Amino acid sequence: MLFVQRLVLFISALLFFFGANAQTASRISGFVVTAEKDPMPLVTVRLVAGNGLPSLAGTYTNTKGHFELVTKLTGTHLLQFSYTGYNDTLIAVDLGKDILLNDIILTASAVELKAVTVTGAKRLIQVRNDGISYLAENDPMANTDKALDLLSKTPMVSVDGAGKVTVNGQSSFKVLVNGRETALFARDPGEALKHFPGSIIKRIDIITTPSAKYDAEGVGGVIDIITKKNVAGYSASLTASANFFDPFDLSTRNSRNIDGSLNLKKGKTGFVLGFDAGNQDNSLSRRQETIQPLVVTSFTQRTGNAVTRGSGYSPQFNSELSYDLDSLNTLIVYGAYNRRRDQDAGESDYLLTGTTAGTVTSQLFSNDSSRTLDWSTGLDYVRKFRSNPAKEFSVKLFGLFGDRDLNNTGSEFNSTGINRFILNQNESHDKQYTIQADYILPGKKKRSWEIGVKAILRRATSDYQSYLKNMPGDVYQLNAGNSDNFIYDQDVYSAYASRKFSIGKFNIVAGVRMEHTVINGDFIASHTRVDQQYTRWLPNILVSRQLKNGHFISFSYSQRLNRPYISSLNPFVNNIDSLNVSTGNPFLNPQLSHVGNIQYRISSGKIFTTISMGYTYSNSYILYGYLFNKATGVTTSQPQNGGISNSVFVNVSLNANLSERVRFTTNESVSYLEIKSPALGGQQNQGFYGRLGGNGTYMAAGKVTLTAFINYYFPTLLLQGGRTGYYAYGFGGRYIFIKNTLSLNLSLNNVFNKNGEFPFTEHYANQSFSTEIKTISLFRGIDIGLTWNFGKLNDNISKKKGVSNTDLL
């Protein structure tokens, strides 16, 4: 109760501060027309502090092409006009007085747009033929949000309380930055998305039906994060933020973070830099576990209580340098760096009943530390052709390198006097070399060919040792059965062809991708080899049609491939807990999935709605199940092939501009899943899961923006059980001050939960055992952030007619 009282006082003080800084409003109005002087309705009009910087206010034109924008800002800003099929136009305006603009003329774009922009709700959602985009630059909370927060608001995407992301109901997907792979998302995309700064994101493309141009990996599709770029001059931002369990007690700080961006464009050279560095100071969770054997084994029940405390440090950055050799040739050099250190210390108490020694108690002290370093670099050469601006040839080189050191120690003290001390060390190194060439050949009547070839050469090694001893003063002895040197090579050679054409009123994209994979694995100590070679022909087709009155429909089918990463292949056994171990499977095969999708979109004035229905089938599904050894009582977690999965999902998203100041978004997703595993005795499960939720934004007059969200997550379905459902909520706001260069952001998430905690329960069972795990984690979070935006545009931005921005990215 004391926390809630403090929170109410804190929010009241902020609202008083916001209101005390109110200023006299100025009015901007005018008309937007085509080159033929025809009025243009539903043109998006945004007021920005500088190109590439966040939107400060916005509206859209009415049926007569007229717009009116009221703001309390002062000083020189930019007015941006955007509409599908037309070049963006920027006009510099001096605020502090009423401004009446004459006809603003938008010119038609000379290139074919890759996306269809939603009218009425364009400020947050953009529609593509192959998916949908979230316009992060128009989200007032993006400055302090991370990519994971933005994805939670995006149609077709679901993010649960543990940060697990699913796309189209699938946990397998590919993450790109500006259409390219980077080291940031090479190892753990979900974790990297928690740290990628939203302040540098222009939009997030959710490609649910990737064409043959894209790698086949990622069953759910592709998440492509597009970063901001400048037309001329520079813009930059710097954000410092902290997350607290209780803002009135600094000792409860969960994390602290600093991130920023720099966008520079001068002459033929462009440069983009984004960085993020943060500390995880307090991570606390409690765990209660009960294992009940259903067969005769070495015990009748095992119960445990554990407390784990963790901390971490994670700096990362990504950059891009582009140079226009001339009007037709461009070179792009890019790179990324991601370093992470984690430390977790746990203390567990176990009670074992029904053993030959009677009731046995034990204590386990564990300490896990990991150090990860991933970095990448790449070079793109892009060649345009004077005869046709849409014709393009490109060659891309990419290198990805990673190192990871894991150290686990466990000290187990048993009431029988039989103690156990263990030390595990696992050092792995990954290298990936990629070369590809792509060619776009446009034809007449919106027809075109896209063809390309690609080679990916992956080299990985894992050197792991496990040591044991029985007394604290003894010398560790090598456990040869859990020690080896694993060498793994994977080469993927691919080629694709994709054709865009129209039949009547239907637009069609059809293609096929061939991928040939060669795998060689060698366990040095055990003299065991893994040799695989397979070829997959992966077709895809997308048929779409624009209907009357803003209605749109599309049908698609594709085949997707999910290759296991080395962490799933590594046979090292994590046996810190002697009765609960986990290991990889070096003999895993790739998962092939058939994906079908139907989408229906309605754009009606201020409301945009998407209804998506899909089906996914795989008879080579990779399952993570538990095996119970009744002879020893050991539970083992190991991925297995051969699972059969049938999934049907429905996703409904609605984006509405209820007024010039109020925006509402809702995203509902429900799936029905059937899974079966012949490898696990034919065990099967089926049921519904999904998410319901929405978020709203209120843009008050002047410099204040308020936001709120609430989501409910259905229970999660697993092969051998599931996880309980839960709900999450939050609200916050942004206040801009000091000549619009500084903004204060406040977010309060799940602040009224009892004790600020979140309990959820997992249960697993088969014919041999039943397990229930209850985990209680800190769920409350109060984020406070301060963002500084600054920049300078070149003088070639007209204060009368504006300039055109043809950068579609």
Write a concise synopsis of the structure shown.
It contains four helices and 46 strands. With 809 residues, the protein is mainly beta.
Please describe the structure with a list of short key phrases separated by commas or semicolons.
disordered C terminus; six-stranded mixed β-sheet; 46 strands; mainly beta
Q: Could you please describe the fold and organization of this structure?
A:
This protein has 809 residues and is mainly β. It is built from four helices and 46 strands. The strands form five sheets. It has a 22-stranded antiparallel β-barrel. A six-stranded mixed beta sheet has the order 9-10-11-15-16-14.
Question: Could you report the average pLDDT, rounded to the nearest whole number?
Answer: 81
Individual helix count = 4
Q: State the share of residues found in helices, binned by percent.
A: under 10%
In whole angstroms, how far apart are the ends?
Answer: 49 Å
- Tally of DSSP β-strands: 46
Q: What are the low-pLDDT stretches, counting only 5+ consecutive residues below 50?
A: 14-23, 110-122, 794-809
Q: Structural class of the helix and strand makeup? A: mainly beta
Largest sheet: 22 strands, antiparallel, barrel
Radius of gyration: 28 Å
Shape: globular
> What fraction of residues sit in β-strands?
over 45%
Fold topology:
Elements: H1 2-20, E1 26-33, E2 44-48, E3 55-60, E4 66-71, E5 75-82, E6 88-95, E7 99-100, E8 104-105, E9 116-117, E10 125-128, E11 131-134, H2 147-151, E12 157-159, E13 165-167, E14 174-177, H3 189-193, E15 201-207, E16 222-227, E17 233-244, E18 253-266, E19 269-293, E20 301-324, E21 329-355, E22 358-385, E23 388-414, E24 420-442, E25 448-469, E26 477-478, E27 484-503, E28 506-523, E29 528-546, E30 551-562, H4 566-569, E31 573-577, E32 580-583, E33 591-604, E34 607-629, E35 634-657, E36 662-677, E37 683-699, E38 704-713, E39 716-718, E40 721-723, E41 726-737, E42 742-749, E43 757-765, E44 769-778, E45 781-792, E46 803-805
Parallel strand pairs: 1-7, 1-8, 14-16, 32-35
Antiparallel strand pairs: 1-4, 2-3, 2-5, 5-6, 6-46, 9-10, 10-11, 11-15, 12-13, 15-16, 17-18, 17-45, 18-19, 19-20, 19-44, 20-21, 21-22, 22-23, 23-24, 24-25, 25-26, 25-27, 27-28, 28-29, 29-30, 30-33, 31-32, 33-34, 34-35, 35-36, 36-37, 37-38, 38-41, 39-40, 40-43, 41-42, 42-45, 43-44
